[in-house]
UniProtKB/TrEMBL annotation:
The lineage of its organism: Eukaryota, Fungi, Dikarya, Ascomycota, Pezizomycotina. PROSITE patterns: ISOCITRATE_LYASE. It catalyses: (2S,3R)-3-hydroxybutane-1,2,3-tricarboxylate = pyruvate + succinate. One of its GO terms (molecular function) is methylisocitrate lyase activity. SUPFAM superfamilies: Phosphoenolpyruvate/pyruvate domain. This is Carboxyphosphonoenolpyruvate phosphonomutase.
Length: 310
């Protein structure tokens, strides 16, 4: 574990800043939407997580990513996810900031206090939608920049820290030059990472990483969306610093649960998804979520609930 002064471990935002400053590091963020998917990603070695806004909306509200989740919905999920591993950075979707500059400031301050390491703010109108859907509407560049300025001021006044990522959805409707202009203005206002949503070609990806250098750029990998399905290797070669995979868990859960339901309804039982037929019982599944650690804490505290195991 990376440490400060040889003794104190870095917190999540400090670790994210170290990753951003390390020229040899490429940041890979699996998209998670609840505690279970986050625990699985952590168990498999994730050193940075991404809280997807689409996944939060779908899992908490059962609704599509069409601007329906509130700041309270998003903050509640982000706070829980950040708490699972306080030294593992969580980058979280913060949509438009949810209102006026004062509301953006409240959002940023709340994310800081929740332990979120990084967030992104975008230039869509409040009734936003997924960046890979048609018909997106944008605020003007001055309002977008005011959101970034509000975020910078809130961070300063909070006494805490968070990495600020500026996202623009201008490419689809306004073109590359306008999108570049907006990101440059956001960076001048204090954004530290640039996020051009909806790139459609490798050429656009190479252009934005070159035109905004040395500011680190983020790539949003959305299979089936409007952007190329760049691998980690490809994104790194292009010049990106971060790649988020927001649909990673959502995409694989959908066919797996559909299949299990069909087996239950058609055959009366559910088979294993493992090639060797292995089934996963409660103890194994609970262990993913920290059961062994909680049992050990109980033992060390003098509790008697798990002296014989579980």
């Amino acid at each position: 574990m990376v440490q400060v002064n040889g003794d104190r471990p870095l917190n999540a935002v400090q670790r994210l800043r170290v990753m951003l400053s390390d020229p040899a590091k490429f940041i890979v963020c699996p998209g998670v939407y609840d505690g279970y998917t986050a625990r699985i990603a952590l168990q498999e070695g994730a050193d940075c997580l991404y809280m997807t806004g689409a996944g939060t909306t779908m899992s908490r509200l059962g609704m599509p990513d069409m601007g329906l989740a509130t700041m309270t919905d998003m903050l509640s999920n982000a706070s829980m996810l950040a708490s699972l591993s306080p030294t593992t950075p969580l980058i979280a979707d913060a949509d438009t900031g949810y209102g006026s500059p004062a509301m953006v400031a409240r959002t940023v301050t709340s994310y800081i206090r929740a332990g979120v390491a990084g967030l992104h703010l975008e230039d869509q109108v409040l009734s936003k939608r997924c960046g890979h859907l048609k018909g997106k509407q944008l605020v003007d560049i001055d309002e977008f920049v005011s959101r970034i300025r509000a975020a910078v001021l809130a961070r300063r006044q909070s006494g805490g820290d968070i990495v600020l990522i500026a996202r623009t959805d201008a490419l689809a409707g306004e073109g590359y030059d306008e999108a570049l202009k907006r990101l440059r203005a956001a960076i001048a206002a204090g954004a530290e990472v640039a996020f051009l949503e909806g790139v459609t070609t490798r050429e656009q990806a190479e252009d934005i990483t070159r035109d905004l250098a040395p500011t680190p750029c983020l790539f949003n990998n959305v299979p089936g969306g409007i952007s190329p399905d760049f691998s980690v290797k490809e994104a790194r070669q292009i010049g990106y610093k971060i790649a988020i995979f927001p649909l990673l868990a959502l995409e694989v859960v959908y066919p797996a649960v559909r299949k299990a339901c069909r087996e239950l309804f058609d055959k009366g039982n559910v088979g294993s998804v493992e090639p060797d037929g292995k089934r996963w019982g409660p103890k194994e599944l609970f262990s993913v979520c920290g059961m062994d650690e909680l049992m050990e804490l109980d033992r060390q505290a003098g509790g008697k609930g798990y002296v014989d195991g579980a």
